[in-house]
Amino acid sequence: MFYPLTINDFIDRAVTVFPDRTAVHDDPLAPVGWEPLTYRQVAERARSLAASLDALGLPVGARVAVLSQNSSRLLTSFYGVSGFGRVLVPVNFRLTAAEVRYIVEHSGAEVLLVDPSLRDVAEQVGCRHTFVFGEDDEQLWTRTDAPRPWDGDESATATINYTSGTTARPKGVQLTHRNLWLNAVTFGWHLGVAESEVYLHTLPMFHANGWGMPYAITGFGGTHVVLRQVDGAEILRRVAEHGVTLMCAAPAVLSAVLEAARGWEGEIPGRQRVRVVVAGAPPPTRLIERIRNDLGWEFIQIYGLTETSPFLTMSRMREEWRPLPGEEQARLLGRAGAPAIGVRVAIAGDGEVLVASNHNLEAYWQNPEETERAQEGGVFHTGDGGSFADGCLTIKDRKKDVIVTGGENVSSIEVEDVLASHPAVAEAAVIGIPDEKWGELVTALVVTTADVSEEELIAHCRARLAGYKTPKRIDFRAELARTATGKLQKFKLRQDFWSDRDRQVN
After folding, report:
1. How far apart are CA 326 and CA 332, in angstroms?
2. Which of 58, 310, 458, 489 could bridge to 304 as Cys pair (CB 3.0-4.6 Å)?
3. Which CATH architecture has domain 1-176?
4. Closest Cα to residue 238, out of 259, 255, 223, 221?
5. In whole angstroms, what is the distance from residue 215 CA to residue 310 CA?
């Protein structure tokens, strides 16, 4: 008998086994936070949201965009939207209004759910139906009529997640219920997620659906602790208050925690208890050592992409490494790691990392050409360069011109287009350079035709781009290295900054 794998399986199990267990603690600093909810209450509010979408006449397959920082409402939306056959479009809350408008229009979203702090952005987007969390709650979360049932189809698209790539426009990654189910279960199994888990949402839930943790933690009956804004000291306080056992984060987040730990009085909370999962860019060996020694937290690294749901490989401490010096252990942990069960990794002749798994994307939304290119040969072409030896993957460079800064992807071409719109800029090349805090620093190499200051160009970009995409450094050059056909040779432009490193990512 065939039984479809859908994300409803996670909330259904939680309600069946742990109905009265506390499911989620909202951020106490949120402007319209919810009280702590049990799994029964989360399921009730998810059904209410689904019934509200029924009342609007939204059919199965309709897209619903959500623009919000981490919140209990956003977490519940994963089930209230996708759980009833519609498609959730989680949007990066850091984007500009123009960027959000593009995603809403490109996805065809008919409904936009928005945090009150982002109301001004929503007003500029102009979606057909817009609801503000806190202000429109009666229309969304308090209905008692039963929502229209959905039979479930594991091949149906559950979410469309927009990711910055090598072009100026982001691509919509279609992930099916089967993709998300297998990612969550596989990731949860490799991490050893248990029903006693207390998970701190340091990772934005919009980012590859929180890497699948909104599903995995729910299915195991763990407790979600919502963090709205990253702050090192606040993370330590939440770890102490809630007994946090697990979190996922970019290296920059852990750098903030380490900085806050310098002034922390008493024992660092979570020592010998917290597991922290890092991705976005391979962190420096020294950072890994400090996480393990200064905080006493277990360091785990994974590699993946939004297009792979995202979990592909994991680097975690092994018994065979126990006799090795701490620095050598940290070096080994700095690799992308071993393939997860069901994941196959290969290296193409040009060094590109190719992956095959049951949680690779279905397609890029309304982009068949890019879908065919990325899935050529029946594998996903990651665009990353790497090597595979001793059962482990190591990422060495980034074939696609994507900069990973603070765990966020930045398209260099998008930033170059904005720079080129300034009348004093003749040419621009944007690259990532090593940075201990952010992993990579967005840096622009610029050729100008008139006098212009670094501050003026940064301000020009800030007015047109999300803050994390804005260059933090401008270098003025007389010319930029190009091929005979006029293409920028970014590997040459990076050499001055990366020449003393054995990997072209940080």
Report:
1. 10
2. 310
3. 3-Layer(aba) Sandwich (3.40)
4. 223
5. 13
| 3-state DSSP assignment of residue 188 | helix
> Which residue bears the tokens 């209990």?
72
Q: What is the pLDDT of residue 91?
A: 97
- Dist CA 393 CA 384 (whole Å): 11
pLDDT averaged over consecutive 10-residue blocks of the chain (506 residues)? Answer: 95 98 96 96 98 98 98 98 98 92 97 97 95 97 96 97 70 98 98 97 95 98 97 97 96 90 94 94 82 97 96 97 94 94 96 95 96 96 91 80 83 82 88 87 92 94 93 92 61 79 61
Q: Phi and psi at residue 152, in whole multiples of 5°?
A: 95, 130
Q: What confidence score (pLDDT) does residue 485 get?
A: 41
Assigned token pair, 349? 């002749």
pLDDT of the residue at 230: 92
Q: What is the CA radius of gyration of the chain?
A: 22
Sort strands 63-67 and 298-304 into parallel, antiparallel or unpaired.
unpaired
- What is this structure's pTM? 0.86
How far apart are the C-alpha atoms of 186 and 184, rounded to whole Å? 6
Element containing residue 287 per DSSP (H, E)? helix 285-290
Q: Where are the domains of the chain?
A: 1-176, 340-398, 402-498
Rounded distance between C-alpha atoms, residue 353 and residue 344, angstroms: 10
* Ranges of H-type helices in 132-198: 137-140, 177-191
CATH architecture of the region 340-398: Roll (2.30)
* pLDDT of res. 164: 66
Neighbours of 3 (CB within 10 A): 8
Contact 259, 436 (CB under 8 A): no
Record the tokens describing residue 494, joined without a space. Answer: 């990076």
Q: Which CATH number is associated with domain 402-498?
A: 3.30.300.30
CA distance 206 to 93: 8
Q: HEC profile for 51-92?
A: HHHHHCCCCCCCEEEEECCCCHHHHHHHHHHHHHCCEEEEEC
Q: Residue 189: helix, strand or coil by DSSP? A: helix
Residues 6+ positions from 14 with CB-CB distance below 8 Å: 21, 23, 39, 42, 43, 218, 219, 221
Alpha helices in 83-222, H assignment, sequence order: 97-107, 119-125, 137-140, 177-191, 213-219
Q: In this structure, are residues 364 and 380 in contact, taking their beta carbons and an 8 Å threshold?
A: no
Element (H, E) at 233: helix 232-242
pLDDT at 469: 93
Q: What is the largest CA-CA distance in the chain?
A: 72
* b/e burial code for range 155-184 (CB count within 10 A of at least 16 → b): ebbbbbbbbbbbeebbbbbbbbbbbbbbbb
Q: Tell me how far the alpha carbon of residue 427 is from its chain's centroid.
A: 31
